Amino acid sequence: MSDIDIIINELVKFRNDRDWDQFHNPKDLALAINVEAGELLELFLWKEAGEAKLEKVKEELADVLAYSFLMANKYGFDIKEIMLEKISKNGEKYPVDKAKGTARKYNDL
Amino acid sequence: MSDIDIIINELVKFRNDRDWDQFHNPKDLALAINVEAGELLELFLWKEAGEAKLEKVKEELADVLAYSFLMANKYGFDIKEIMLEKISKNGEKYPVDKAKGTARKYNDL
Amino acid sequence: MSDIDIIINELVKFRNDRDWDQFHNPKDLALAINVEAGELLELFLWKEAGEAKLEKVKEELADVLAYSFLMANKYGFDIKEIMLEKISKNGEKYPVDKAKGTARKYNDL
Amino acid sequence: MSDIDIIINELVKFRNDRDWDQFHNPKDLALAINVEAGELLELFLWKEAGEAKLEKVKEELADVLAYSFLMANKYGFDIKEIMLEKISKNGEKYPVDKAKGTARKYNDL
């Protein structure tokens, strides 16, 4: 079993043990991802990038990932597949010769 | 190589080919996760959970995951490890007998 | 009529002319605030604080404010009242002698 | 003095009493708006629109507004002016005859 499948199995077991699937529709999962992303962001608020507390970053990042994995699972998406496809698509939006060394958006390249 | 490592290798190669590591400090990665989470959320705005367009959800979810993987990589976190640790920690905050079937937060259980 | 009332009147007229009140339940308004906040945040992504484009900041900030005003209106909140009440409450959480010059959260003071 | 000016005066006094202007660059204010928007969103997570607790909504909405007012003040924007300008601009993007009764984005009208 792949690492991703092992993690998803644990997440789904955790959810099912608590009978939470009834709450986990895709819209609320999108809310949950945003709520956790906001908690992750708070760790950097009014701070330099290096000042966030590592233990907290680990936990909030894990929460963002957990709800993202659960959303993928809910839709039946293959995480590896959708990520590699998006990287490939981004390669077209950001060709190396135009995008190298600049943080501009693709529509400003 | 694990699926997660394969994905991270592709993300890092994509980033390095474009010389973007200079922009990817942890604080801006936290911003990027929030920006992408907001774009994912927008797909559900004013809609029922089932009305979001699948192809768009795939792409925005992949973006959230991509910046989350890159943040983990930046800190040297092992994604499987931090996710399994967080699930275990959440198991203590949400014991099955108290949390089953309710969406209340742990401090309201 | 106060400035806030003038703005709310315009927002409500705009919404009603388009028959959009049917979509503006408080939950979706909270989503809209987050979506717009994410677009505002994107203007600062990979950048120094001073590098965001002023015209865009104006527009995205106005969007955050618009949905926030519409949410207040939806609930019948008086914006001036809830803001002054929150400032007063924050004064208790962050007493000047403890909070002066530090960005720490109230539970770390 | 207008309502908006009264509120901004209180916010600025609160901030200056604590010597927090040093932290309030526009980028971190954008982060703060997102963090507070996330806390507002959390009140609706796993819930129907009508189930959020009013007292909490009031407080989190006031926080979103507070940082938005402070950002406007930081840039020297006139809140009434930028909001009315944006409403006018949105009127062009969403003409009544096309936008009436539909939640579609302007680029899908």
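qc> The radius of gyration of chain B is 17 Å.
qc> done
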